[in-house]
Specification:
This protein is α/β, with parallel strands linked by helices. 40% of the residues lie in helices and 21% in strands. It has one domain: 3-Layer(aba) Sandwich (Rossmann fold). The strands form 2 sheets. Strands 2-5-1-6-7 form a 5-stranded parallel β-sheet, with helices on one face.
Length: 203
């Protein structure tokens, strides 16, 4: 099993990179674990308290469960990946059954910030984009897909996203095998990643 960790700041284009990698493999070869589904269960908090949670700090992530799930997959056991609701700022009671596959991609802004989790990856990738471009992408996504309003997104960016990026996400580049500039479609970098994946699978 080949485990790939893909991180980068909010709105950097991680999802696009992951989709391009998935398209290069057959459905039974690859599975994706999203950090978003591993936010800690906040059922003990009321809605307002959940809204005020700093979801861009490593403490918001259930790294213990994510590491356990990766180890289960490596051992050939299926896992129940949680499903997170951005509207409720909490996990739902539903899950996705994930079977072991040849390639497992773990993606999210903080998936390279935990040393023990980082050690489980065979390939570590950082997707990089200009800060202004990332903000624009984040604004469009949160308003269109996650029911946020513009003011809320901008306030969160200034108070948590930007400082958390500088403290916990940007430093992850030092631990990466590959940094992909992604202000625009990067065909060469994606082709390199695909080639490495196929080479490692064959060996």
């Amino acid at each position: 099993m080949l485990i790939i960790g893909i991180a980068g700041g909010t709105g950097c284009g991680k999802t696009t990179v992951v989709q391009q990698m998935v398209e290069a493999l057959s459905d039974d070869q690859v599975s994706v674990l999203s950090q978003d589904n591993y936010y800690k269960d906040l059922s003990h908090l009321d809605f307002e308290s959940r809204c005020a949670t700093n979801f861009d700090h490593p403490n918001a992530i259930d790294f213990k469960l994510l590491k356990s799930h990766l180890n289960d997959l490596k051992s050939g056991r299926a896992i129940k990946q949680p499903i997170y609701s951005f509207e409720q700022h909490n996990r739902t009671e539903e899950f996705v059954l994930v079977q072991p596959t040849s390639v497992v991609i773990v993606e999210g802004i903080l998936v390279l910030s935990d040393p023990e989790l980082r050690a489980l990856y065979d390939i570590r990738i950082y997707v990089e984009a200009d800060a202004d471009e990332r903000l624009i992408r984040r604004l469009k996504r949160d308003v269109q897909e996650r029911g946020r309003d513009t003011q809320e997104v901008l306030e969160r960016y200034q108070t948590t996203l930007k400082p958390m990026h500088e403290a916990f996400i940007e430093p992850c580049k030092a631990h990466c095998d590959l940094i992909i500039p992604n202000n625009h479609y990067n065909t060469v970098a994606i082709d390199v990643v695909k080639a490495v994946i196929h080479q490692k699978l064959q060996s």
